[in-house]
Design goal:
The complex is a heterodimer of chains A (649) and B (445). Chain A is mainly α. Chain A is 65% helix and 2% strand. Classes of the chains: A mainly alpha (649), B alpha+beta (445).
């Protein structure tokens, strides 16, 4: 399947604005400046916007975490009030999950995945831009609370009914903090589902010729699995959120206890989403680590089919274990036993991945660059988080651990030691590709060690706090409970961790502006994204690559003559079809997202006229988007660009 | 060696070169960590809510399962971590010759090893699964043979305190008001050595009943009948806490469980069943409550004392004795009047002495015999009670006694629920009045 050769648009439009079009459909063509970013459909630019927003929210979420740790540094502290503390832990979790880790993964999906499969963009470029703008809208809605009288959402990231009902969450009649949370998550769900659809279609349809599914890089495989998880799990929370919105805005009784509502229903719907969400957060990092370990071990991934299959098995089993978040809700013996065993079962494919990663290193030549350090950090920390996860799966033990700091320790080992370490490794790994500059090994490793020490000092003591009976989500504790020194250590650790993250980002910023220029393929990597110049040109591949083996670029590097012959032939084919087809920029994804943002904010304020006006903008945006047509234009890479294989650019 | 321009060489040396120095540092750190471990473990796992210091069969069963998981995962951890460490050290490129060495064989895996490891993982999990299943059934309900001797209580969570009902202990209501189950608040007294079934209920939001030394938590969920069982092997005084986030003051929603020998329990029950009347220690002549100095209340001020914690069950026993002296009679009488005048009686019943009360507020019949106030938060001393009565919001922010119920009954303040501003005061308690109320409440043994 040669995606480019089969394009429906080939030959129809040979440049910008050939046909006469009404002014409203004038296509933006700016290549630089603000408009080029607002109207972009380039998957790399969308990826960058996702990444930068995610990192900003990562810092905001981190500051919230530090405020929490300062409050807990000593017993009976008065640094912040109970109310503010509750807002902090609610927003810390919501921000880190939905506004930092998920979009950072989406940034890699957007930027790296099409390059790994040899595609020139995603399947629906305008929809891709839309997904980002809707994400930003959702992020704004969630954070508006900091600037209004209601305050930020304070019912926990899990929003257990009936604490979210008006009777218990509204300090005063116009309190809309919970409405902001409900609306923000719904809007983010739109973004996630739209984005995931796009990734699925892209991976299924737009792989370069020769790239069979069993040759797809593991990171792309994980993208595919995560996209399916999002599509299957977000409807559950969307249903719950819509029901809650109905309860709050229109007086329905899904969760309204006084009228026979069932709060436990919320928990089931939430965790049917919430547990796959855990894998939505961790699988991309597993994918990144599965790219980095082979590259720096200079060996293919050990047991590729089993790693891929384990990822899929984790995703599948992830839908059958949600009630292990509810072992203490009195489900009865049989349900508890079933979910206990299912949860243990999920340890098997997770363990398999671990074995295969070690197998990848075995007999390799390990090059201890910074991405490799973060990947090894991932292995260690994720292993610890995985083992404490097995402890939770044993329901009787979990009865003591549930909602204690033991759980807090567990999921931070999985989500920081796992997901965040993987993502930080990925930033380091792909930085030379994306920005064409090489991060200093010294400073990279220094940031790794500070983060590693700070992370363990923060979260390892929390295991003991939990086993010593300290519950989560508590703004104060008494000094006679034996929790003082562990809490103090955790707080000190959190500041070490913050310094490490600070060093990491300062180094990245410095490298972006002043760093050493990187040669092409600095790591001697194995997958197709490294076969193109850095930073990549807008059209990605001057010639559609042909894939002959699993590590496609590794094969290219070892079969240079064969590849050069193929490239010449394919370049001629591309030219015969009118050149490289590129998608046109568009205003309408942004316009539609602004309509959604406006409608949501007015709706949350119970201002129905404004909500309808916002909805009108949204509908108009969709109509114009449809009638604008996909468009597209062709570019013609020069001979030099086509023949370029040795890193000159 | 990769370049690090402008970086202090000493640091560079430490990070990248000199394997000797690094291994010394590593060994040193490991030695320190190993030496600290017992110290840390001991200090970090012996608190009043430790899940390791179990005092009953349910918590013990849960700890047993935890130990199984700890051993199984611990052994696997040691194996995997050793292999990972070995692979890292053995195969790592140490110099530029290693870096430039020809690529290693491009092996793609070994299905036999992979399947073998999957099999081994499954076997390891079976070791965990068997005791898990056994104890899921054991911890869920009281064993058949103990059911006939079991004791039953109801625990009801409210924002942010616990009500405890004794469904089989009837009390006679005054004025021929019929009978009602015995009701207490925040301190659950149970017979030691007997299985106790705790029915868990709530009428507002979700709470969770957790006494770590006796049993793991089970949630209280509206419109759902949950239960747990526990047993205290010996008499004792146990700390508990709400373990499900339940709103603004969740952190300070605490309670206690006191387990007593049958005889002592029977004495306690008989006393609780009686109506309240101020009790005085006739042997004392000095006034107790006229003399204490109120402490200035600050937010989150601790309310515990190490003297109490030295022997908490004995401390509980002293709380059963009269505290007021005969010289306090006038002050107690004044407090009794104030209890009515300040509308306390609208929500709080003092059975046999102050008719009234509402089901959603703590029963104060024998409040003087409880070791804590404000939902298990503060030790029941005159100074703490004084703080609580004069500045409830500073002790427990958002509590209903202060704020009242949205759109319903007012508490200390009148709140405009449209703008969330305090528009006036419904109840004010000055220092003199608080002193009298303290005297009255603490005399209710």
């Amino acid at each position: 399947m040669d995606a480019a050769a089969q394009s429906h648009f080939t030959g129809k439009e040979a440049g910008h604005a050939v046909e006469k079009r009404p002014w409203i459909f004038t296509r933006p063509t700016a290549q630089t400046g603000l408009i080029s970013w607002l109207t972009t459909v380039d998957h790399k630019r969308v990826g960058l916007m996702y990444g930068i927003s995610a990192l900003i929210f990562f810092l905001i979420g981190g500051i919230e975490a530090l405020i929490i740790r300062v409050q807990l540094a000593v017993p009976n502290n008065t640094f912040i009030s109970h109310q503010v503390y509750n807002e902090m832990f609610t927003m810390h979790a919501t921000t880190m999950i939905f506004l930092a880790v998920m979009p950072l993964s989406a940034a890699f999906f957007n930027y790296i995945m099409p390059l790994q499969i040899g595609a020139r963009d995603v399947a629906f470029p305008r929809l891709n831009g839309f997904a980002f703008w809707v994400f930003l809208a959702g992020a704004i809605i969630l954070n508006v609370g900091w600037f209004v009288k209601s305050g930020a959402p304070d019912a926990g990231w899990f929003g257990y009914a009936p604490l979210t009902s008006k009777a218990f969450s509204n300090e005063f009649r116009a309190d809309m903090s919970t409405d902001l949370w409900v609306m923000g998550l719904q809007v983010l769900g739109v973004s996630s589902i739209v984005g995931s659809m796009n990734f699925i279609v892209t991976i299924i349809n737009m792989r370069a010729p020769g790239m069979t599914m069993m040759r797809v890089p593991v990171f792309t495989w994980m993208t595919l699995i995560v996209a399916f998880l999002i599509i299957l799990s977000f409807p559950a929370i969307t249903i719950a959120l819509v029901e809650l919105m109905m309860d709050r805005s229109f007086g329905t009784n899904f969760f309204e206890v006084s009228n026979g509502g069932l709060p436990i229903l919320w928990q089931h719907l939430f965790w049917v989403f919430g547990h796959p969400e855990v894998y939505i957060l961790i699988l991309p990092a597993m994918g990144i680590v599965s790219e980095i370990l082979p590259t720096f071990s200079r060996k293919p991934l050990f047991g590729y089919p089993i790693v891929v299959f384990s990822g899929a098995a984790i995703g599948f089993l992830g839908f059958g274990v949600w009630s292990h978040h509810m072992f203490t809700t009195g489900m009865g013996t049989v349900a508890t036993a079933a979910f206990s065993l299912a949860t243990m079962a999920i340890a098997v494919p997770t363990g398999v991945k671990m074995f295969n990663w070690i197998g990848t290193m075995w007999n390799g030549h390990l090059q201890m660059r910074t991405p490799m350090m973060f990947a090894l950090g991932f292995l260690w920390m994720f292993m610890i988080g995985g083992f404490s996860g097995v402890m939770h799966s044993a329901a009787p033990a979990d009865a003591q651990q549930q909602d204690s700091y033991f759980v807090v320790a567990h999921f931070h080992y999985v989500l920081i030691g796992g997901a965040v370490f993987g993502l930080l490794a990925g930033i380091h790994y792909w930085f030379p590709l994306i920005f064409g500059r090489q991060v200093s090994e010294f400073w990279g490793k220094l940031s790794f060690w500070i983060i590693f020490v700070g992370f363990n000092a923060t979260f390892f003591p929390m295991h003991f706090l939990g086993l010593n009976g300290m519950p989560r989500r508590t703004a104060v504790y008494d000094g006679n409970m034996g929790w003082n020194s562990a809490n103090m250590l955790a707080t000190i650790g959190s500041f070490i961790l913050a310094i490490g993250v600070g060093v990491y980002f300062v180094v990245m910023l410095y490298t972006y502006f002043k760093g050493e220029k990187s040669r092409r393929d600095p790591w001697d990597a194995r997958t197709l994204e490294w076969s193109i110049p850095n930073p990549p040109p807008a059209y990605n591949f001057a010639v559609t690559p042909t894939v002959h083996a699993r590590d496609a670029f590794w094969y290219e590097k070892h079969h240079k003559e064969e590849i050069a012959r193929e490239k010449l032939a394919h370049a001629k084919e591309d030219e015969a079809h009118g050149g490289v087809h590129m998608p046109s920029q568009s205003w309408f994804p942004l316009m539609t997202a602004i309509g959604l943002l406006t409608a949501s904010l007015f709706f949350v304020n119970h201002h129905m006229t404004g909500a309808i006006a916002g909805a009108a903008i949204l509908v108009l945006g969709v109509i114009l988007w449809a009638f604008e047509g996909p468009g597209g234009y062709h570019v013609h890479p020069s001979k030099d660009e086509i023949n370029d294989t040795d890193g000159k650019h | 060696m990769y370049a690090a321009n402008g970086v202090p060489t000493a640091l560079l040396t430490l990070m990248t070169a000199s394997p000797n120095l690094r291994s010394h540092i590593r060994r040193g750190l490991i030695a320190i960590a190993v030496a600290c471990l017992p110290l840390l473990m001991g200090g970090w796992l012996s608190g009043p809510q430790s899940t390791f210091d179990t005092k009953g069969p349910v918590a013990k069963a849960q700890l047993d399962v935890f130990y199984v998981t700890l051993w199984v995962t611990g052994i696997i951890f040691v194996i995997v971590a050793s292999v990972l460490t070995y692979a890292t050290l053995k195969f790592k490129a140490r110099n530029s010759a290693d870096e430039k060495a020809p690529v290693p064989p491009q092996g793609h895996g070994n299905p036999l090893i992979e399947l073998g490891l999957i099999g081994a993982s499954v076997i390891a999990l079976i070791f965990i699964a068997v005791p898990t299943l056994h104890n899921i059934w054991y911890t869920y309900d009281i064993p058949e043979e103990e059911k006939s001797s079991a004791y039953e209580v109801n625990a009801i969570g409210y924002q942010w305190w616990f009500k405890f009902e004794y469904p089989h202990e009837e009390v006679q209501l005054p004025n021929n008001g019929g009978t009602s189950p015995l009701i207490v608040a925040n301190e659950l007294v149970i017979p030691a050595g007997r299985a106790v079934r705790v029915n868990l209920r709530t009428f507002d939001v979700i709470h969770s009943f957790w006494v770590p030394k006796l049993a793991g938590k089970v949630d209280m969920i509206p419109n759902r009948g949950n239960h747990l069982w526990l047993k205290a092997d010996e008499p004792g005084y146990f700390w508990g806490q709400c373990a499900e986030y339940c709103g603004e003051s969740h952190a300070v929603m605490r309670f206690r469980v006191i387990a007593l020998e049958e005889a002592e329990f029977a004495v306690w029950l008989a006393k609780q069943k009686q109506g309240a009347a101020p009790a005085f220690d006739e042997s004392k002549a000095q006034p107790i409550f006229a003399g204490y100095t109120p402490i200035e209340n600050k937010r989150n001020l601790p309310g515990w004392s190490s003297e109490f914690d030295l022997s908490p069950l004995d401390s509980w026993r002293t709380f059963q004795q009269p505290a007021a002296s005969s010289a306090d009679r006038a002050l107690v009488e004044q407090g009794r009047e104030l209890f009515r005048a300040k509308n306390c009686v609208t929500c709080h019943v003092v059975r046999g002495d102050q008719p009234g009360g509402a089901p959603f507020a703590p029963d104060l019949t024998h409040i003087g015999s409880r070791t804590t106030i404000a939902g298990g938060l503060l030790e029941n001393t005159p100074q703490n009670l004084h703080r609580w009565l004069t500045d409830p919001n500073g002790v427990k922010p958002g509590n209903k006694m202060y704020r009242g119920f949205t759109g319903g009954m007012s508490g200390y303040v009148l709140v405009d629920h449209d703008t969330n501003t305090i528009t006036g005061h419904n109840i004010t308690v000055n220092d003199e009045e608080a002193r009298a109320l303290v005297a009255y409440l603490q005399s209710l043994k």
